[in-house]
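User: Second chain of the day. Same drill as before.
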Amino acid sequence: MPEFSLDPAHVEWCAALRALAADRLRPLAEKGEPGRVNRPLIAALGELGLLERLFSSGALELCLLRESLAHSCTEAETALALQGLGAHPVASAGTPAQRERWLPEVVAGRAVAAFALSEPDAGSDAAALALDAAPDGVGGWRLTGEKRWISNAPEADFYTVFARTTPGAGARGVTAFLVPADRPGLTGSPLDMLSPHAIGALAFDGVPVGPDDVLGEPDQGFRVAMGTLNLFRPSVGAFAVGMAQAALDAALDHTAGRSAFGGVLADLQSVAHQVAEMATRTEAARLLVYAAASAYDSGAPDVPRRSAMAKLLATETAQYVVDAAVQLHGARALQRGHLLEHLYREVRAPRIYEGATEVQRSIIAKELYRRHAAAARTIGEGARA
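Assistant: Same format as last time:
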């Protein structure tokens, strides 16, 4: 593909976002309680017009937004991304009434959304989910079962819930529902996780849902889920790139000024080469993320492969870069409150959620072999013609 570079307007916008996150959003994030939804932070994202961008931007602008926020304030980035993940199915597959009821509240930062796909025994294998949607005899369903590792649970105001409406049908038997948090029979509990964000479990005890709660079509919920994930996977990579860049910047500052062995750390070839490797991997991941997002925006046919590659490389790279930055800083980076201590806890989860690294490799391989088989058939047909 041709060389990729951002236009000056995008570069300027990203710089403004980084400054905005540092000056306006980070103070709100620091006042938040770990493991709880930070509603003042979400409200600020709405007031600044950033939540509206989730539904008006293309994939590339979404990546630039998430990367820029992540560089200066990971909590703000995550709060924004979770609003998008939970509400995007409403925007893309909801009825006019559903969109009118919830999207203005999400955009304003008044309603908290959540994407409820994972279960205790159905994480990476999303098609194996078992939350049961049993017909209630009057045209609706009753949801029974459990969701787990749900970001913003149990504090969200509504959930995009994926449940099995046709047993034994795999991905074809899943329906997406919009479930308000005050629906009878729905309860939740927080989970104490390594990440500082609100993550919880949801219990469904015969929760009533009807045709007006369906997102899209019955038994077509997996398509809703994959459409959302294909959009957000490159931007998860952008989140990772933002963290990697923050860690790289910290490493540059530290090694350029830290006295050691009669000079500064940057004078040591082993240190300089380590920083060069960190920078090269970060830039490679960034370009792959941008390429995947551009492919999504242009309607390219290979979006699943590109999205999977972007998430895979970017999240694995961020883990490497943050770990290397910690090593270059030494023990000070492990102190509570240090930027790298924070990033070290933040960077681990993206390699798991929205499709673990191993799942991304499976998607990439499947797409490669599918394309290979199609090319072989085309060659064979040409030879017979």
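The chain has a mean pLDDT of 93.

User: Great, on to the next one.
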